[in-house]
Amino acid sequence: MDDHNTSEPLSESVEMYLLRIALLQDGDKPVPISVLAEELAVSPVSANQMCRKLAERDVVIYEPYRGVTLTLHGESVALRVLRKRRLWEVFLAEKLGMEPQLAEEMACRFEHVTPDMLAERLSSYLGNPALSPQGEPIPASVGSVVHRPRMPLIQIPAGHLGQVVSVGGDDTTRTFLRMQGVGAGAILRTLATGPDGSMLLQAPSGQISLAAELVELIEVTRVRSPEEEPLLTVPADTGEA
After folding, report:
1. Which of 62, 130, 165, 218 is deepest in the core (most CB within 10 A)?
2. Residue 36 sits in which domain range?
3. Any idea what the CATH number is for the domain that residue 181 is in?
């Protein structure tokens, strides 16, 4: 395909560039070509040539010696691809029992060949999830991501709620926490925090106590206070992989 022709659909390689730029871009700051090349495992010369082509297709703004930023059209394409990837991640992890990292690797193979209509059917089938198995936000079908500030679980005051967006540690630790009901998407209520950093929590699976070294692995976003809404639960199979 000739990527100079704006009337033609974008190739898989172009979509990969746009997606990687979207993931690397920090606000309006250009992504350096050297950084982009390293992320995509290509030479800086190849990345530079491709970025010039992308600029001709009006999907990026190319600034010599500074890098590239996405145009609105480029961002829309990238978010559409990212939405498909993360929906497949949810399907593979929750419905087929794959570990989240393997699910992500497999989803990368499907994102470029999934029609928009299939992505919407998949989203509906999964209950329109907001987070991937690894706690990353899934772009909405309109092509936007709601960015919610993350914070350590320890910062959630007693009596308040937090939704898990990231769980660190090795596979054994993450599996243990999922068995306790602490996986991406789970909503927890802080009941008490010990002086050593341990926490007593109300999880979808019941009341649990976590040692400080486990608490430190969990990032959440704040959700409604208990005065506004009772404890929320997640489907029983959420995060099981």
Report:
1. 218
2. 12-70
3. 2.30.30.90
The string of pLDDT tens digits covering residues 140-190 is 875 454 445 678 999 999 988 887 878 888 888 988 998 898 987 678 899
Q: Is residue 90 part of a domain?
A: no
In a domain, 238, yes or no: no
- 3-class DSSP state for residue 137? strand
Q: What stretches of the chain show up as alpha helix (H) in DSSP? A: 12-24, 33-40, 44-56, 72-90, 100-110, 116-125, 171-179, 212-215
Instruction: Give 81-93 pLDDT, tens digit per residue.
Output: 999 999 999 999 9
Its pTM stands at: 0.60
Position 45 scores a pLDDT of 95
> Per the structure, how many domains does the chain have?
2
Residues 6+ apart with CB under 8 A from 63: 30, 69
Q: Residue 165 domain-assigned?
A: yes
Q: How far apart are alpha carbons 82 and 144 in whole angstroms?
A: 10
Beta-strand relationship, 67-70 and 60-63: antiparallel
CATH number, domain with residue 18: 1.10.10.10
